[in-house]
């Protein structure tokens, strides 16, 4: 099965020259495009195409370096502009071997439709094609779309790409952590191992029989797992963080009332829930109006 080219499109409320400068100037382009750590134009010879080199820094300081050629730019009718590229790399770690694509700028009444389409050959034969189709191509398409939204917000709202990416990745780190905590505490102590302290804390606060308290704990475990999954799937994360800001103080008070001696234990309910309470406030602040790949069209 042949993979489809990557296609991303977004409308940006700006002027053509401003958008062209932000996307065609290397030191500006590398600020907002998640796919590149640096872009360097090489000395141009006469009327030959513009050659450039690019770098993407990976973990542990490892980088993938590649080359690119601006095949040409074209001014079309009604103020349209197009920029075509040829790119590739000889780095054996890169999933991409060589490819071609273009950027197109289509003026509207009060905005510019900025779009790209590109395709590439992959390394590692049939295995590389499978990995590309299942993992890398969706990932680089998502990264392209996220970058386009960062560019849009930079131009329209003047929030720098750096601050947008800091908020984006910190917000998601907190989201993944909180999701893991809810799923873990719902699944491990409540559903799988059925730790007796879970029932003990409940019966110390509310006069219930063991059987009734047991089923309430089981239900609480399922609810915690659902909440953890919601953190991953529900788009409006601020609603969930706001909920946590309310419930963590209540959970802390309940746990201390059930067994005050826990305050003398390491990683006790006071310090644990207080940490999650502060993280919830941070998550609530950071996830306001985050850049998102979903703001882009991904198909023609």
TrEMBL record:
Listed Pfam families: DoxX_3
Annotated signal sequence is none
Q: What is this protein called?
A: DoxX-like protein
UniProt KW keywords:
Membrane, Transmembrane, Transmembrane helix
Q: Where are the transmembrane segments?
A: 169-192, 212-233, 240-258, 270-290
């Amino acid at each position: 099965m042949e993979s489809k080219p990557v296609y991303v499109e977004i409308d940006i409320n700006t002027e053509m020259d401003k958008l062209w400068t932000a996307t065609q100037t290397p030191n500006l382009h590398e600020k907002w495009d998640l796919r590149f750590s640096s872009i360097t134009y090489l000395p141009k010879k006469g009327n030959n195409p513009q050659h450039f080199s690019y770098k993407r820094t990976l973990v542990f300081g490892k980088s993938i370096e590649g080359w690119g050629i601006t095949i040409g730019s074209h001014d079309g009718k009604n103020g349209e502009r197009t920029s075509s590229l040829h790119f590739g790399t000889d780095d054996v770690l890169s999933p991409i071997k060589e490819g071609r694509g273009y950027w197109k700028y289509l003026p509207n009444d009060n905005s510019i439709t900025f779009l790209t389409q590109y395709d590439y050959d992959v390394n590692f034969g049939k295995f590389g094609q499978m990995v590309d189709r299942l993992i890398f191509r969706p990932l680089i398409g998502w990264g392209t779309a996220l970058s386009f939204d960062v560019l849009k917000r930079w131009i329209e709202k003047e929030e720098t790409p750096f601050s947008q990416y800091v908020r984006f990745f910190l917000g998601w780190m907190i989201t993944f952590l909180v999701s893991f905590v809810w799923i873990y505490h719902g699944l491990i102590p409540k559903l799988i191992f059925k730790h007796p302290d879970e029932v003990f804390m409940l019966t110390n606060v509310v006069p219930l029989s063991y059987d009734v308290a047991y089923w309430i704990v089981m239900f609480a475990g399922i609810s915690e797992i659902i909440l953890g999954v919601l953190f991953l799937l529900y788009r409006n994360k601020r609603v969930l963080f706001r909920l946590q800001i309310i419930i963590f103080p209540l959970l802390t008070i309940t746990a201390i009332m059930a067994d005050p001696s826990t305050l003398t234990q390491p990683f006790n309910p006071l310090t644990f829930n207080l940490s999650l309470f502060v993280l919830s406030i941070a998550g609530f602040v950071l996830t306001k109006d985050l850049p998102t790949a979903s703001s882009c069209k991904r198909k023609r």
